[in-house]
Specification:
The protein is α/β, with parallel strands linked by helices. 40% of the residues lie in helices and 11% in strands. It contains eleven helices and ten strands. The chain has a four-stranded mixed β-sheet. Strand 9 and strand 10 form a beta hairpin. The longest helix is centred in the last third of the chain and has 22 residues. It is globular. The two termini are 20 Å apart.
Amino acid sequence: MENGSKKLVLEEKKEEESLTVRDVLGKLMENINEGEKRATIPLGHGDPSVFPCFQTTPIAQDAIVNALQSSQFNCYAPAAGILPARRSVADYLSKDLPYKLSADDVFLTVGANHAIEVMITVLARPGANILFPRPGYPLYEARAKFSNLEVRHFDLLPEKDWEVDLDGVEALVDDKTVAIVVINPGNPCGNVLTHEHLQKIVDSIKSYLNITADPATFIQGAVPEILEKTTSCFFSKIINTLREDADIFYDRVKEIPCITCPHKPEGAMSAMVKLNLSVLGGINNDIEFCIKLAKEESVIVLPGVAVGLKNWVRITFAVEPAFLEDGLGRIKSFCLRHSK
């Protein structure tokens, strides 16, 4: 690409290769201008904990230290997690349910990646297929292929607030389908599916599917104390900051001529915006947009092709509000500068 930009190859990668979101963001960071005096604004990441407004509660930090110093958890944990941690999680979740969960209903994992690995491994069988949303994350597909599951994609519809394309699901599902992945609140789209729509998804597949409801031990040892002592004020503060960020994001995006957000974020930490390439000169796709934005404005956003949606961009809004204002302002300047 011109101006010494480093090319990011996504669309023509071999089928068996899996380029993670982290890989893509790393490639984009290589295009940051080393002479740029302004701070880099990371609006493509998926981990808000690096920002002070989203740091974890000191209660959690103290609980982990206490668990480690107790010497009670210097051992291997059962595969499903230690009993006190599972019991605490079950009690905590039962507060918002019309029925009570037990420890046997809980399987603890080391984050979402481990959970995806466990579930797909359990579901895999010869000749089976699994349905994934588009846009979605490469990890699901990579793990399914590792387990020899056929991957089939259904679309999320931006014109319907990113609801599932039910007709598409019904065309894909068959007696070899072992699961459909539905992420709610939506990630990367930032939507929240209604109960009515979730029921329609179940109705579209229920004739085919049976629907049923080795972690670090010292971390699990801290879980009961974390759940017992963390107050609602901590969670309210985080939610209020996310709500402020979502408002800033949606209002500022409306001021940027080359991108459109079809729906204000209602959950998660990011949203998908559509590029209007017809109003931009010298930018042919979402990859070029992201590379040039990184080089010229030191702002990192994720090209939509990385999550299966070409010529869209994922913007993470879970950052310090002032950072978000600055980053979106730079994107606006970039778009105005490249307008035809």
